[in-house]
Specification:
- It is a single chain.
- This protein is mainly α.
- Helices cover 62% and strands 0% of the residues.
- It contains two helices and no strands.
- The protein has helices spanning 12-39, 49-71.
- The longest helix is centred in the first third of the chain and has 28 residues, at 12-39.
């Protein structure tokens, strides 16, 4: 099945939004890591479906937006690094 975007060129506004998303994601991830290491407690005892889905979907979305931000084109397939 082919992706609906199939390598289309994105305009400057969408590319700017992708860059802003990448910057915000990096700030959020680094502040989360800093808070976890500062408190010294890393527990994963309350994992539900939404948490697992979020942990799996977040890297995919990050890579998808990173591809758009760097190249200015949507990926040609569902897998951003192809």
């Amino acid at each position: 099945m082919e992706a609906p975007w199939n390598g289309e060129k994105v305009n400057l506004f969408i590319r700017s939004l992708a860059i802003i998303f990448i910057i915000c994601a990096l700030i959020a991830f680094s502040s989360l890591l800093f808070a976890l290491f500062e408190s010294g407690e890393i527990t994963l005892n309350i994992l539900d479906f939404r948490s697992v889905f979020g942990m799996l979907a977040a890297p995919y979305c990050f890579l998808l937006f990173l591809k758009v931000a760097v190249t200015g084109h949507a990926p040609k397939s569902w897998i951003p690094w192809k």
